[in-house]
């Protein structure tokens, strides 16, 4: 199935960051959305702060939900669709968890029956509030909520892969009950793909929900190892897209590049535009791509303290809503693809992934990761296929794969 590509941005308010929900100002939101729409983008991904929306296990604040709907309507007025993340959760190094889950009321987010039921109702409520809005794309369960499940989080909520899978299924079902038929997904950080023993798995990421969401950040060892212009760095997002497709049971399952950005100092600000252009070119060469949602819309204000340094300059726009060079690049690419069908050539050559080697083989520096990068640098456009599917003619045919390579065959 061929689709028109979607281009959007993760909405970080220019005034007050996500704390803007405390002093919600629709005029300020409108100015932000105007600056996003001026880039020619078609959607935003927005982030309610969970503790502000559900401060008590049995209280979902009606006024907060109304403000979310008002934001969605303001986006619609500017031609922007809206995807909503529910459980925030974790954003830019800060955790936002309701008091009823911590300290004296400590509950495991993934296994405590009362906590899970409350999360279900919260996600259902947000989805239902937006279900009649034509510009509502769907819910994401939460932003990289898998980071709460184990190290390096300082206070994790342990969970097994089986429990994580059941939790995801319940959360996605709650979203579907609230707004049937929308693009409801879940999103993990790359430990799901790269970290041995991580309880959230590639199979869950690629099989649960309406699409696979991937988050590409080259500060994970990729840029440190390969440099800002290395093939592996500029193709990291494309690699995750292709890696995710290996785990999907449906060859036509769409993949949403839901987060990708140019993190300083590994990508210095003066080189962010080049990195943006190269990353987009590589990702858009992947069949089955739903779209790209860049991180993020506006810079974090220097008036706000304690963010990691890289977070302050990730915006496509400045705090006074002026486009930066990377924003101009995304605007040009979005304009060039508007109303065009996305039909890149099939990737006929696939690198075979031996799942028994563990997920770390797929991480930066791992043998599979480096072999894929080497093939790409040589001009091959490698897909990825699991070893269990390498002898399945029907699977290979469905994906258009005609040649298989093993890691040991790559120089």
From TrEMBL:
<protein>
    <submittedName>
        <fullName>Glycosyl hydrolase</fullName>
    </submittedName>
</protein>
<dbReference type="InterPro" id="IPR017853">
    <property type="entry name" value="GH"/>
</dbReference>
<dbReference type="GO" id="GO:0016787">
    <property type="term" value="F:hydrolase activity"/>
</dbReference>
<keyword id="KW-0378">Hydrolase</keyword>
């Amino acid at each position: 199935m061929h689709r028109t590509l979607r281009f959007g941005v993760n909405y970080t308010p220019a005034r007050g960051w996500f704390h803007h929900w405390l002093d919600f100002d629709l005029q300020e939101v409108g100015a932000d959305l105007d600056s996003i729409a001026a880039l020619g983008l078609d959607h935003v991904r927005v982030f309610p702060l969970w503790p502000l929306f559900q401060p008590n296990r049995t209280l979902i604040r009606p006024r907060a939900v109304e403000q979310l709907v008002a934001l969605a309507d303001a986006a619609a007025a500017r031609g922007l669709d809206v995807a909503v993340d529910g459980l925030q959760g974790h954003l830019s190094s800060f955790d936002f968890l309701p008091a009823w889950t911590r300290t004296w009321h400590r509950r495991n987010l993934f296994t405590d029956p009362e906590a899970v039921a409350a999360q279900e109702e919260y996600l259902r409520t947000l989805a239902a509030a937006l279900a009649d809005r034509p510009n509502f794309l769907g819910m994401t369960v939460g932003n990289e909520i898998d980071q709460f499940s184990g190290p390096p989080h300082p206070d994790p909520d342990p969970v097994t892969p089986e429990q994580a899978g059941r939790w995801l299924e319940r959360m996605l079902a709650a979203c579907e009950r609230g707004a049937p038929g929308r693009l409801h997904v879940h999103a993990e950080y790359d430990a799901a793909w790269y970290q041995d023993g991580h309880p959230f798995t590639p199979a869950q990421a690629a099989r649960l929900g309406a699409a696979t969401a991937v988050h590409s950040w080259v500060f994970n060892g990729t840029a440190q190892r390969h440099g800002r212009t290395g093939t592996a760095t500029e193709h990291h997002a494309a690699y995750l897209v292709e890696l995710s497709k290996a785990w999907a049971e449906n060859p036509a399952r769409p993949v949403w590049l839901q987060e990708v950005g140019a993190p300083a100092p590994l990508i210095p600000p003066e080189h962010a535009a080049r990195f943006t252009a190269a990353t987009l070119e590589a990702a858009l060469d992947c069949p089955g791509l739903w779209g790209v949602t860049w991180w993020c819309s506006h810079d974090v204000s220097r008036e706000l303290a304690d963010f990691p340094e890289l977070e302050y300059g990730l915006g496509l726009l400045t705090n006074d809503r002026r486009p930066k060079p990377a924003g101009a690049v995304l605007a040009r690419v979005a304009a060039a693809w508007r109303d065009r069908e996305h039909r890149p050539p099939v990737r006929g050559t696939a690198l075979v992934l031996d799942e028994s080697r563990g997920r770390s083989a797929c991480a930066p520096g791992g043998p599979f990761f480096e072999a894929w990068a080497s093939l790409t640098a040589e001009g091959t456009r490698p897909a990825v296929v699991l070893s269990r599917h390498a002898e399945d003619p029907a699977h290979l045919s469905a994906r258009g794969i005609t040649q298989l390579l093993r890691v040991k065959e790559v120089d």
